[in-house]
Amino acid sequence: MRNPSAVAGLSGTWRGELVDEHGTSEAFTLIRDASSDAAVAGRFLFFVTRHVSPTGVKLLEAANESFVALIGPYYHPGEEAEVVTVLEGMRRGTVIEGTFHTRLPGWRDSIRSGRFTARRADGANKAA
Question: How far apart are CA 82 and CA 63, in angstroms?
Fold first, then answer.
């Protein structure tokens, strides 16, 4: 279920870091278009380091402060495979944080998991 005001609260550019269970970190950018077309589709644009091309993200669920998003599938050079990543997070003002799990499509077990945090990098829609 998507709450329109919750989706709008995720608009803008978010810059953050994924830190996996081994302490390995990757910088990422998450961009949410504020246009009405993007809100209907619940789409984002996701970028992980310079080695992964911009990849589509689908917002699966959004409440006033929480969200679940599915990234990919995308080719991850560190895994040498196509993968999907699920973000489960909370938004508080200009910060989002939570957990992530990366899996091979069709596999149940995670091949990588950890925590993420990001901060809004622009002035788009700062409503709580």
Answer: 29
